[in-house]
Task: inverse folding
């Protein structure tokens, strides 16, 4: 059977013959889904301007009808009726009537139609309200996650044998050792950038040697911790979310619960501990690489010899700057790992949500790391450290 | 207009060295519910995939709505795809779209109807397959197994297809749900004048809704016809199917209508 091309569905308003205010409608053509466009438009216009009139609707010349065409008829029939029109349908074919009777049951009720003007103005406010409530719920959920995690931490500190040292070591390797190349590369480039930008400015004043102060201080105190944390958030935070998310979808986490393996103890705590141990070490490593890169550029650009650089560094870089940088490590690590695991456990049934929560997790943890860093900056400066 | 809507003749299918079909022929008539029956691995799903142009047989000819699938042009393939609906075994609803968007996606892509009307048609189809109207706003992950099947059926029916392909429509449903689904398909055929091709190994479906069916086995069609015709077939596979313990109970009762 060759799919035949449908005749366009049409509807026409005939000249009223009997005068008495009766509008004659005549429809013809095939009322099938691919031919309905014009008829739908005509009916829409017609139903808007005609209220409280008598209509005689002649359907005797209609060809094929499918469920969409019948639905169109039913919809405007109801609409005109509710607008106070009286409608008489003439010339109905028996197969159309049969279809009408079957489909009538499934006609959807009025589902609101276009929202009223008032509610359209309110919609943005509604949206703001909803997202604010969602935000509060999110925070509540995060706090309860942290609480549960803290209780687990306490209980595992009371029973040190229950700490999963194997998992911690494995996570240290995954999050720390495997991340060395990328941390090296970014730290090196940051060192280069700082040295270059500083060198140009300092050269103008003939204060070349101060490049050492600048590099030493900025790298150890601010840049190494921040850059390392951001790299780790992008690399490890996202992988935590994805790993736990997949386990959630495949019901592995539920399986663990039924066997009495608390997912917090087995999955979350080892990850958080591992990252808190390894991030300070990575910051230390990043310090070395960053300063070395700065030293290299100073040598090339400002002709400061390596010995001179190191001698000056020992004089100007107080050890507290280094410790401040290192001490930020565990805080950043805790934020990254906690957010990563929290988002991972939030993943719901469908696969698409893994992607969504991974993105959210990375954005959240980078933001939190920077916010935390700003907080440290202000606090330590105020304290005069 | 000829009476047969799908003709499969001498189809050979091979995956690597594994020959699945070796000369399969069958035909589906206008307006009937046709079952493809067979054990696991008998190639019923592959045959269905060949009918809907997801797989290409090594040789042989498949004609759907008068079009030879192996020689079909791009444009007539596109038209053909508008004229059938497919229900996949696991529903295959797009997980990023709501039920309403899933059902309406073909309408929005392929017709120029006003959005309001599309919404109206979609609501009707959702109601027609027995889902509550509130389900329209839900995402597939929020539906139960039975609801996913129903939503997928609504999507398959969105464009008023002439031909509906169902891949194990009742698998994974409880007996009550499966029976309701069978009745739904019967009713929809009544309303929309569908021709239905279904892959199934649910014997209850075979008894109650299928008009004609074929049994696949040993890479061939070993029996084709109505239930009464097939059940008389002496082939051991057919006998196993219908005289086995599970089939036997129903055989004694006979068809229940």
Result:
């Amino acid at each position: 059977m060759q799919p035949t091309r449908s005749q366009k569905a049409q509807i026409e308003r005939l000249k009223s013959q009997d005068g008495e205010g009766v509008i004659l409608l005549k429809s013809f053509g095939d009322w099938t889904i691919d031919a309905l466009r014009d008829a739908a438009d005509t009916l829409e216009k017609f139903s808007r301007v005609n209220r409280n009139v008598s209509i005689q609707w002649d359907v005797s010349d209609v060809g094929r009808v499918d469920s969409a065409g019948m639905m169109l008829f039913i919809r405007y029939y109801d609409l005109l009726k509710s607008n106070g029109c009286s409608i008489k349908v003439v010339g109905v074919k028996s197969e159309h009537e049969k279809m009408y009777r079957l489909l009538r049951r499934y006609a959807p009720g009025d589902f609101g139609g276009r929202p009223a003007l008032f509610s359209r103005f309110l919609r943005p406010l509604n949206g703001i309200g909803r997202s604010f409530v969602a935000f509060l719920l999110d925070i509540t959920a995060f706090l309860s996650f942290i609480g549960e995690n803290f209780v687990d931490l306490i209980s595992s500190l009371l029973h040190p044998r229950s700490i999963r040292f194997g998992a911690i070591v494995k996570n240290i390797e995954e999050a720390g050792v495997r991340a060395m190349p990328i941390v090296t590369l970014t730290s090196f480039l940051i060192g280069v950038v700082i040295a270059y930008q500083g060198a140009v400015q300092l050269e103008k004043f003939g204060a070349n040697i101060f490049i050492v102060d600048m590099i030493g201080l900025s790298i150890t105190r601010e840049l190494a911790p921040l850059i390392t944390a951001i790299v780790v958030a992008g690399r490890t935070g996202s992988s935590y979310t994805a790993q736990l998310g997949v386990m959630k979808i495949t019901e592995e986490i539920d399986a663990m619960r039924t066997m009495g393996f608390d997912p917090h103890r087995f999955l979350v705590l080892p990850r958080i501990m591992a990252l808190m141990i390894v991030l300070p070490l990575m910051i230390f490593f990043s310090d070395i690489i960053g300063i070395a890169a700065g030293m290299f550029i100073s040598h090339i650009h400002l002709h400061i010899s390596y010995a001179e650089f190191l001698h000056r560094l020992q004089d100007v870089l107080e050890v507290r700057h280094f410790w401040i940088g290192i001490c930020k490590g565990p805080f950043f690590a805790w934020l990254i790992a906690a957010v990563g695991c929290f988002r991972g456990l939030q993943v719901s049934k469908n696969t698409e949500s893994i992607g969504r929560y991974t993105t959210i997790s990375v954005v959240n943890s980078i933001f939190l790391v920077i916010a935390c860093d700003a907080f440290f900056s202000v606090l330590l400066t105020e304290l005069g450290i | 207009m000829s009476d047969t809507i799908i003709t499969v003749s001498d189809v050979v299918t091979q995956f690597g060295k594994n020959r699945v079909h070796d000369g399969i022929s069958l035909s589906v008539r206008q307006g009937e519910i046709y079952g493809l029956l067979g054990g696991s691995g008998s190639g019923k799903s592959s045959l269905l995939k060949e009918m809907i142009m997801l797989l290409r047989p090594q040789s042989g000819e498949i004609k759907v709505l008068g079009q030879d699938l192996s020689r079909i042009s791009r444009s007539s393939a596109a038209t053909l795809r508008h004229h059938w609906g497919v229900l996949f075994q696991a529903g295959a609803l797009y997980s990023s779209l709501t039920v309403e968007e899933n059902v309406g996606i073909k309408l929005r892509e392929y017709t120029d109807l006003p959005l309001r009307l599309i919404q109206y048609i979609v609501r009707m189809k959702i109601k027609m397959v027995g889902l509550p109207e509130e389900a329209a706003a839900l995402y597939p992950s929020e539906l139960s197994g039975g609801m996913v099947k129903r939503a997928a059926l609504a999507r398959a029916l969105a464009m008023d297809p002439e031909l509906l392909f169902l891949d194990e429509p009742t698998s994974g449903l409880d007996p009550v749900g499966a029976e309701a689904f069978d009745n739904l398909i019967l009713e929809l055929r009544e309303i929309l004048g569908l021709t239905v091709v279904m892959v199934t190994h649910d014997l209850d479906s075979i008894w109650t809704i299928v008009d004609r069916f074929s049994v696949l086995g040993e890479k061939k069609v070993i029996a084709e016809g109505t239930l009464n015709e097939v059940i008389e077939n002496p082939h051991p596979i057919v006998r196993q199917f219908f005289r086995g313990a599970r089939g036997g109970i129903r055989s004694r009762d006979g068809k229940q209508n």
Remarks:
- Residues 125 and 154 of chain B are 5 Å apart (CA to CA).
